[in-house]
Specification:
Adenylosuccinate Synthetase, subunit A, domain 2; five-stranded mixed sheet
C-alpha cells in the first residue's frame, strides 16, 4: 500500500506529523522533493525531533529514501544523519542523481534576494502587485542549484565520488560564478574568494562524496522492488501545493515540484501507481515570507494564533504570517492533487475565540470569483468574503486523545464538517496538539490506517534494503 502526504496550503500544515504517524506501519518513507530549506518538527513524548533533509518517520526504523527530485547539501546532510543515528545504508537510500547545493549557490541566493528589493513582498506590502520585492527565500541556495540543474551545469552526488571530474568541473564553474557574484551583483571579492577556491572545494566535496557513496543508488529501481515485495510506502511532501513551481503562487513559490505529481518526476514512480493522497491543512492559513495571504490577520488575534500555534519556521526561525482558513485556496489543492483524505491540524489553536471565520470565496472588482487570480495585479486587489462560525471553548487535549473525535466541542466538530464539505474532501483526522497522541481519527482515516496495519502483509513482505 502507498500513501502520499501533501500540504494543501503554503507549507507548515503539519505534514511531518502525519508522515510520522503513517510510518508506524510503513517499510519505506520517501522524500521526492525538497532540500536544506525544508523542515519538519515531530514531537515525541515532549522531545522535538527536527528533520531538514531527512524524511520524517525515519526515526521509527523505517528505511528513508531521498529521490532524484531532492537537492542535497552534503555537509549538513551528514551532520543530520549523525544526529539521528543514520550510519548504515540499510537505513537510507539517496538517489545518485540528486543534485548538490554548493557554496556559490548560497551566495547567489543571497545576492538574488537582495537584487529583488529591500522588503519582502506580501499581499499587503509594496512590490506584490508588480512582482518586485523579495520573495522571502530561505537563502539556502536551492533555487540557484536547480537553475544549474536546468542549465545542465550542475553537479550530482554521484559526480562527487570522482575526484578528477569534481575538480575539473569546479575549475570551470567557480570562475563563472565568481564573475556573476562580483561583476553582476557587486558582492565583495574577498567574501566570494573565501568560499570559492576550486581545488579546496573539490577536495571537500570529494570527501563528502566518499562518505555518502555507500548510500547512493537507483531510487526508481529499488522502489519497484519494494512494491513487488508488498512493502508499505509513505511519500512525504517536503513542501506544499502553493509552493509548486508549476501550480503554486508564482513567483512566491519554491523551485521544485511539491504538488502530488512531483512523486513521479522526483522518484520515477509510474503514473498509474495506486496511491492514497492525504492532504494536510491547518485550521487557519500561514505564510512564511512573501506571497498571497488573502484574509491575513494582524493585531491581537494574529498574535494569539502565532503564540499558541508556535508559528515560527523550523529552518528559518521567522515568524509566520497568519490568516483565516481559505476554502477556495485549499479546494484548488484538493482538486489538483486528487486528495482522498483530509487531515486538519491545529484545531486547538482556535479554541477560546468567540467566533472564527472562513474565506468562502473572493471578490475581485465587485465580482465573485472562486479562483485565486494568477495575474499579480489582480491578486493584489482580491478581497476575501468571510463566513463567520461559532467559536468553541478550550478543551482537555488528553481527554480527546483518550476518548476520540466525539470528545471535541460540538462547535469544533461543526467547523471540521463545514470546511471538509466546502473543500470537497472527507475528513480523515483532526490534530489538536504537537504530540503523536494528539490526533483524533475519523472513520475515513481509521480505514486508511487499518490498510497500513495489515500485519499479515508485513510478516511476508521484505522491506527494501533489509
Amino acid at each position: 500500500m502507498e500513501v502520499l502526504v501533501v500540504g494543501c496550503q503554503s507549507g507548515d500544515e503539519g505534514k511531518g506529523k502525519f508522515t510520522d504517524l503513517f510510518c508506524e506501519h510503513a517499510d519505506v518513507v520517501v522524500r521526492f522533493q525538497g532540500g536544506p530549506h525544508t523542515g519538519h518538527t515531530v514531537m515525541v513524548d515532549g522531545t522535538p525531533l527536527r528533520f531538514v533533509q531527512l524524511p520524517a518517520g525515519i526515526n521509527r526504523g523505517v528505511r528513508g529514501v531521498l529521490g532524484n527530485g531532492c537537492v542535497v547539501e552534503p555537509g549538513s546532510l551528514l551532520e543530520e544523519m549523525a544526529e539521528h543515528g543514520v550510519d548504515d545504508p540499510r537505513q537510507l537510500l539517496i538517489s545518485s542523481t540528486a543534485h548538490v547545493v554548493l557554496p556559490y549557490h548560497r551566495l547567489q541566493d543571497e545576492a538574488m534576494e537582495s537584487w529583488r528589493g529591500d522588503v519582502v513582498a506580501s499581499s499587503a506590502a509594496t512590490g506584490f502587485a508588480d512582482g518586485s520585492g523579495q520573495i522571502g527565500s530561505t537563502r539556502k541556495g536551492v533555487g540557484p542549484c536547480r537553475e544549474d540543474k536546468v542549465a545542465r551545469i550542475g553537479l550530482r552526488l554521484i559526480d562527487l565520488v570522482d575526484p578528477d571530474l569534481t575538480r575539473a568541473r569546479l575549475r570551470k564553474l567557480v570562475p563563472l560564478k565568481r564573475s556573476l557574484l562580483v561583476d553582476t551583483f557587486g558582492m565583495a571579492p574577498e567574501v566570494v574568494d573565501a568560499e570559492l577556491d576550486a581545488d579546496v572545494l573539490a577536495r571537500r566535496l570529494h570527501g563528502f562524496g566518499r562518505r555518502l557513496a555507500p548510500f547512493l543508488g537507483d531510487v526508481a529501481a529499488e522502489l519497484r522492488a519494494a512494491r513487488a515485495a508488498g512493502a508499505n510506502i509513505v511519500h512525504e511532501g517536503a513542501q506544499s501545493v502553493a509552493l509548486d513551481l508549476e501550480h503554486g503562487t508564482y513567483p512566491y513559490c519554491s523551485s521544485g515540484y511539491s504538488a502530488a505529481g512531483g512523486v513521479t518526476v522526483g522518484t520515477g514512480t509510474p503514473v498509474n501507481t495506486p496511491i492514497s493522497v492525504v492532504g494536510v491543512a491547518k485550521a487557519y492559513m500561514v505564510q512564511v515570507g512573501g506571497g498571497p495571504l488573502t484574509a491575513e490577520l494582524t493585531g491581537e488575534v494574529a498574535d494569539r494564533l502565532v503564540e499558541r500555534g508556535l508559528e515560527v519556521g523550523t529552518v528559518t526561525g521567522r515568524r509566520r504570517r497568519v490568516g483565516w482558513f481559505d476554502v477556495p485556496f485549499v479546494r484548488n489543492a484538493v482538486l489538483l492533487d486528487g486528495v482522498s483524505h483530509l487531515c486538519l491540524t491545529n484545531i486547538d489553536v482556535l479554541s477560546g475565540l468567540d467566533e472564527v471565520a472562513v474565506v468562502v470565496h473572493y471578490a475581485l472588482d465587485g465580482r465573485r470569483t472562486d479562483r485565486y487570480p494568477v495575474a499579480l495585479a489582480e491578486a493584489a486587489r482580491v478581497e476575501p468574503v468571510l463566513q463567520r462560525l461559532a467559536g468553541w471553548p478550550e478543551f482537555d487535549r488528553e481527554e480527546v486523545a483518550r476518548v476520540g473525535y466525539r470528545a471535541l466541542p460540538p462547535e469544533a466538530r461543526e467547523f471540521v464538517r463545514f470546511v471538509a464539505a466546502a473543500v470537497g474532501a472527507p475528513p480523515a483526522a483532526v490534530g489538536f496538539g504537537r504530540e503523536r497522541r494528539h490526533t483524533a481519527w475519523l472513520d475515513h482515516g481509521a480505514a486508511l490506517c487499518d490498510g497500513l496495519r495489515d500485519e499479515n502483509r508485513r510478516d511476508t513482505a521484505a522491506p527494501v534494503g533489509r
